[in-house]
Design a protein that fits this description.
Helix 1 packs across helix 2. This protein is mainly beta and 388 residues long. The strands form 5 sheets. Strands 2, 3, 4, 6, 7, 10, 12 and 13 form an 8-stranded antiparallel sheet that branches. It has a 5-stranded mixed sheet with strand order 16-23-22-18-19, with no helix packed on it. Strands 1-14-5-11 form a 4-stranded antiparallel sheet, with helices on one face. The protein folds into 2 domains: 250 residues; 118 residues, Macroglobulin (MG2) domain (Immunoglobulin-like, Sandwich), CATH 2.60.40.1930. 6% of the residues lie in helices and 36% in strands. The two termini are 24 Å apart. A hairpin with a 4-residue loop joins strand 20 and strand 21.
Amino acid sequence: MAVYKLFPEKDASIYSAYPAMNTGLDPILDVANQVTESNPVSRVARSLIKFNQSEIDNVIDNIASVTASSDWSSSLKLDVAKATNVILNSSLEVYPISGSWNNGTGQYLDNKENTTGCSWVFSDYSGSNKWLMAGFNPLVTASFSGSNNIGGGNWYTGSGGYAGIGSLKFTQSFNLRSEKDLDVNVTDAIKIWYSSSKSINAGEIDIINEGFIIKWQDSEEFVTSSAVTPQLSYYSIDTNTIYPPNLEIKWKDYSYDNGTLDIINTPDLYVALDNNPGVYYSESINKFRLNVRPEFPARTFKTSSLYTKNMALPSLSYYAIKDLDTNEFVVDFDNEFTQISCDETGSFFTVYMNGLEPERYYNILIQTEIQGQTIVMDENYYFKVVNG
């Protein structure tokens, strides 16, 4: 199993209330439908985010060299900074953007409005290249076309038949008590971007990576009812926290052949982490190996110590990684993508350090199933990632 995280090359929010305002360097990405109190008017915010296509291509090429093309998944993940009035069942929609856009150097409500990049009306700087409102490319839809709110981006809704892929609308629903982090599967969009980038699209329309637009569903935008005013604010790539957006790509590189190794069959086990120097550069790829033995070996007469004999974890074994300070999972246990492999030497798994925030400490946890018991081992397997 492997997890690879890519960070955005640009992101920004666009606001219908400020048609030319750029927020390309703001630490927050907003998705909202706000309503003024007197003479109710709806003010909508959407967010744009793009990841580098060359980096995506490199990861997919690596996946193709180790696994079947279907054995991988990709998710767009954003951490919530603030959630307001998400009291009804509400859905965010994520679409691939049509057309290039400029990040700009503005922040929300700068003392002097910054117009150096994309905004509600313009995909480039103010006065240049408006978002299209007519003459769209095939499969592309317009932004909101109301007379007072023209603008808001262009995006693809359909794929045109790429390898059986239909809609390019990706959604996540929220309610009052649900988690508000965004974690939406966008695998189909990544596949299409890769096919277009590599010219292996079998004659289909090129859909070039211009990033994603994130918006509330149509029924929750431009609504003037005070009961429909959801706002989700997410950390952007310019945040000073450890929660920048990321595109997480996971694939199965799992293999299990224990050879002559015995598989441990007691829940009283001891697991030690091998191949751990403790400090890694962010470009590092490390294969962690596990030394496994019974904590209380059965008494027997042998000429060598049982404590020197390595054993294999059962095939239903997984790993996870926590941030040591926040105690949050940055890689959670996953029955499909964090399964621990095994060869004739022992159990092992590979970690790509690039997806972990540098200058922080992390803790590895091991989960296995033995005799009907699920055992989670937290044995202080620490390491640190540093800037390379």
